[in-house]
Amino acid sequence: TKHVLGIKYLTAEDIRLIFETAESFKEVINRPIKKVPSLRDVTVANLFFENSTRTRISFELAEKRLSADVVNFSASSSSVKKGETLLDTVNNILAMKVDMVVMRHPAPGAHHFLAQHIDANIINAGDGTHEHPTQALLDAFSMQEQVGDLAGKRVVIFGDILHSRVALSNIYCLTKLGAKVRVCGPPTLIPKHIQSLGVEVSHDVWDSLKWCDIANVLRIQLERQDIKYFPSLREYSQYFGINKTLLDSLDKPIVIMHPGPINRGVEISSDVADSDHSIILQQVENGVAVRMAVLYLLAAGR
Ligand code: CP
Fold it and tell me: Which residue intervals define the domain Aspartate/ornithine carbamoyltransferase carbamoyl-P binding in the entry (predicted)?
């Protein structure tokens, strides 16, 4: 495959190859000398038209650990502010001999549009409410480290499913790997017909916690909602928040995950986010190895 536009377009075999490659890179980046020469002579542009902390830094580190030349572009400080189009922006950057583009963009499908017009490899680092494929890959890789083969394992994605690209990419990735997936949140934040993607729907947090091996907790994406979530964030926290009292009442440990950024005290309490059951920072650590694997495999196909 030339691009990574979404998990929708990857096979289970592609995903397993990415995980095997990521395992090797995880070993590499835990050595005192973290760098390998695999992407020497490859130039990567990280184009961020939306804010990011984890994904932007993780891609930049992954590229540098692979010895790529890296340029970073942030729309907020660019000529996009003077009205330059996406295609003009990207073509101007590619004219400087860039081989691969990592892009985050608020418009769902922006990467598909770009793929029809440019020759470079494209990796989707998040397109609006659509997909965030490398987040789903690092999530599933981290789950597999905790519970082994995901076939038959039960994963609940809690929270704002409607506005979340992480939810959609997780659903594609986990169902391709044979996991049983449930989404849980208020009816207003769950898309209609989501069952057609092979997931269960629940509005009952307690029942979903009892059902699952792994809870992937997502935040309320207020920035993507034209009408504010009703009822209030305080009520969301009361009825759908994951807190220690709930987890202590379970008769089994479950793995707690969150892609970040966390709204502490809303979808997850601090004592859960920071507990021994939480692998939130392991997810971030694995993000570098998984992104190295994606970059390496795409570059190898050039
Ligand atoms: N998980 C994630 O995409 O975080 P950032 O928005 O900080 O990149």
Answer: 2-145
What's the whole-number mean pLDDT along residues 50-72?
Answer: 98
pLDDT by residue (tens digit) across 242-292?
Answer: 999 999 999 999 999 999 999 999 999 999 999 999 999 999 999 999 999
CATH number for the segment(s) 133-283? 3.40.50.1370
Q: How many helices (H) and strands (E) does the chain have?
A: 11, 9
For ligand 1, say whether the CB of 106 is within 6 Å of any of its atoms.
no
Provide the whole-model pTM.
0.97
Domain 7-132+286-300's class? alpha beta
Residue 33 CB-density burial (10 A; 0-12 exposed, 13-18 middle, 19+ buried): exposed
Within a 10 A sphere around the Cβ of 230, how many other Cβ atoms? 10
Distance CA 53, CA 259 (A): 11
Q: From the CB of 133, is ligand 1 less than 6 Å away?
A: no
Q: CB of 287 closer than 6 A to ligand 1?
A: no
Two domains, one topology: 7-132+286-300 and 133-283: yes
